[in-house]
Design a protein that fits this description.
This protein has five helices and 37 strands. By secondary structure, the protein is mainly beta. The two termini are 27 Å apart.
Length: 718
């Protein structure tokens, strides 16, 4: 068996890689009735058999949307119901890392990227879109992937090599705004792949240099904590070796490094009164308000050489002839090493010789995750079974450059989770999917002294090994009303932690015992989907509840985010509709609405969850037209509605959210050699603020979204 056949067979049965990529809709090439997906249950199922809402974004969709955008978040905004609109370049994807109002687990090739200790929300930066083969999204909590899969799963699948003669792909592009040369950005990407029936390989190398952004009125936008004014280099490499007709070894490397090349700080923002922040040139390496500052010893603040490095390494063994079924064993190591901008740091430790002094320096973070994933797919007389074991170790450190005690104590976390997932066919028209996962998580924290910058700095805290264990269950039913129409219903439990380090590092307790508190969410969903001639549709309603949710609120006094724990419940509805008017004209639409509330301690009534958690109503419409030799054209529209719960929210971020409408357009034209593309983002030059910026109580991040931007690119394969 050659590599392609082996890879597809095992991947479709054992991992989160679909054998065919599609949305909850038909494609022009493949009927949705035949689409195979596996993310929902870690086992092979036809899309029509899955009792869940799933979106699968293929490579062509990713490429098309990324040719008219700078961020992968925009792809998800347009194609995934239940996910908020793009946060436009913000390094933190907070606000868009929720689906259906709850935290999403982001995976790359099945390996989680989220930091459960402190949620920086930067995991979307870990991969260059040029390396993406497909993206699979489960909408709603999952019981089969463990920590973090509380509101959904986004699994990004990277490209694999194709057997045959060496093939090359070169892609160059530029984008800019009409307001000034500072907005000019450019990128280049080179890919090569090939191999024989024994060994196949693929290498991709890319470089992206970004300029700044301007709003619809031509005003420069801040770039601190943003993806503007940055350079990034990325490397992707895969080598597969077929041991024989049934067994293979695959080695995968993904690396991305991001550095600042300039900096524009935010100043003058007053979010409470609707005053947006202005951009002030501060140079690379400075946080807002730091450039030009002097410490207590009279030394001027120095910029830091900010760098952010994301790396993923995997080795995978696959065996189709394993005695118990099909075997998939993956070992992995994921690492994130980052440095912050230069920050103001005041020594608040009364026992410190520098008590009361102000210094300027930076924090570093060192986050590592490594482990093993074992999957076995077995076919029994009464069920198709996927079972196995996940074992993982994580570590986190956060030293600083000024010699203070670490801002956060060093911490390690061990997790082990056996699972079993079953699919039984009750009748010819009805299937039942059900499973259980046992999750054991233990954190290790040594004795430590609260860091110098905290209000109770110097306090001694006894370390320990807090832990929890939970059983997670799921069950779902799919019934074929007719061969073209299915009704489905499901219950699934999701699990995440409460960002334990956010509480531990402040020393609010004299011990770390009990600091790790899981958030178990019960998710319910019922839906209907089907095909009617050239149209496909899906509609679903959902409800989720948790006894102890976690919402981040902004503490103005101490200038930090704090976690508020409270019971939560969220509900909503989603629908998709696609129609092929002809072989070369296609339209796809989505609509999603959600609402949620929490019950704070001491409060008798439920209050609405704020806009940092609950996205307003969202409607999208995408058109694709293939004019053959005259080019290919696309138009994407997105409407984000309003939501005003300001008077009903008692604490935390609580701004009302105003509506806006965006339109992006693009075209492709085949040349005698290669293809040229041209696109316009924010075609109508809409003047707006992203919903998360409207909702978050943070003056330095309250500013307009970018105005109109033009994209021009060229790609050639040879």
């Amino acid at each position: 068996m050659n590599y392609t056949a082996l890879s597809l067979a095992v991947a479709a049965a054992l991992t989160s890689v679909p054998a065919l990529a599609n949305n909850d809709q038909a494609s022009s090439d493949t009927s949705a009735m035949d689409t195979v997906v596996v993310t929902a249950s870690r086992s092979q199922q036809q899309l029509t058999d899955v009792p869940r809402s799933i979106t699968v974004i293929d490579q062509e969709q990713v490429s098309r949307l990324m040719d008219q955008s700078q961020d992968i978040n925009d792809v998800l905004s347009v194609l995934v119901p239940g996910m908020g609109t793009s946060i436009h370049g913000n390094l933190s994807s907070k606000g868009q890392n929720n689906i259906r109002g709850r935290r999403v687990l982001l995976m790359i090739d099945g390996v989680a990227q989220n930091n459960s200790f402190l949620d920086f929300g930067q995991e979307m930066s870990a991969i260059d879109p040029q390396n993406i083969e497909r993206i699979e999204v489960i909408r709603g909590g999952s019981a089969v992937y463990g920590l973090g899969a509380q509101g959904g799963i986004i699994n990004i699948i990277t490209k694999m090599p194709i057997e045959g003669e060496t093939q090359y792909r070169t892609k160059v592009g530029t984008n800019f705004q009409e307001f000034g040369s500072d907005s000019f950005s450019w990128n280049v990407y080179q890919e090569a792949q090939g191999g024989d029936d024994k060994n196949q390989w693929r290498v991709g190398l890319g470089y992206d240099q970004r300029g700044g952004s301007f709003d619809a009125d031509g005003d420069r936008l801040p770039s601190v904590n943003n993806a503007d004014d940055m350079d990034n280099i990325n490397l992707s490499a895969v080598w597969n070796h077929n041991l024989d007709a049934e067994r293979s070894l695959t080695f995968t490397l993904g690396y991305r490094n991001i550095t600042d090349n300039d900096g524009w700080c935010a100043t003058g923002g007053d979010a409470k009164n609707g005053v947006t922040a202005e951009a002030e040139h501060c140079g690379a390496g400075f946080n807002n308000g730091v450039n030009g500052a002097v410490d207590s010893d009279g030394n001027p603040a120095q910029p830091n050489d900010v760098t952010r490095t994301f790396a993923n390494y995997q080795v995978r063994y696959q065996d189709l002839g394993f005695s118990l079924g099909m075997l998939d064993l993956t070992g992995y190591w994921m690492t994130q090493d980052t440095e912050t901008l230069t920050l103001k740091m005041e020594d608040k430790n009364p026992n410190s010789p520098t008590f009361g002094k102000v210094f300027y320096g930076h924090n570093e973070t060192d986050f590592d995750r490594y482990g093993l994933k074992l999957n076995i797919a077995s076919m029994l007389d009464w069920a198709d079974v996927t079972w196995g074991l996940d074992v993982e170790q994580q570590s986190f450190k956060q030293p600083n450059s000024v010699g203070f005690a670490n801002n956060t104590p060093d911490v390690e976390q061990f997790a082990i989770a056996p699972f079993g997932q079953f699919t039984s066919y009750v009748t010819e028209d009805t299937s039942v999917s059900y499973g259980v996962r046992y999750e054991y998580v233990r954190m290790n924290v040594d004795d430590f002294i609260v860091g110098n910058t905290h209000s109770n700095a110097g306090k001694e805290v006894e370390g320990g090994s807090p832990y929890f264990d939970e059983f997670l269950f799921n069950v779902g039913v799919t019934h074929y009303l007719t061969p073209e129409h299915q009704v489905f219903a499901s219950f699934a439990q999701g699990l995440s932690t409460n960002e334990a380090l956010r509480d531990i590092r402040t020393g609010n307790s004299s011990t770390v015992e009990g600091a790790i508190q899981p958030i178990t969410t019960d998710n319910y969903e019922i839906g209907l989907r089907g095909l009617v001639n050239q149209a496909d549709y899906s509609v679903a309603v959902f409800f989720s509840e948790s006894d102890l949710g976690a919402t981040l609120n902004y503490d103005e006094v101490n200038d930090r985010l704090v976690s508020t724990r409270a019971p939560e419940r969220i509900w909503g509805a989603e629908a998709t509709l696609g129609y092929s008017f002809s072989a070369n004209l296609r339209n796809d639409n989505t609509i999603s609405w959600q609402e949620g509330e929490r019950k704070l301690e001491g409060e008798s009534d439920w209050e609405p969850l704020d806009g940092t958690r609950i996205a307003p109503v969202k409607i999208t419409s995408s058109w694709q037209y293939d004019a053959k030799e005259l080019g290919r054209y696309n138009l994407d529209m997105i409407y984000s509605g309003s939501r005003d719960k300001e008077d009903e929210i008692t604490s935390g971020a609580k701004y009302a959210v105003d509506s806006f409408f965006l339109m992006n357009a693009g075209m492709y034209y085949d040349l005698p050699v290669g293809t040229i593309n041209f696109a316009v983002e924010n075609l109508l030059n809409e003047d707006y603020i992203t919903p998360y910026a409207q909702s978050e109580l943070n003056n330095s991040r309250y500013y307009n979204a970018p105005g109109r931007r033009f994209f021009l690119g060229y790609e050639v394969k040879y």
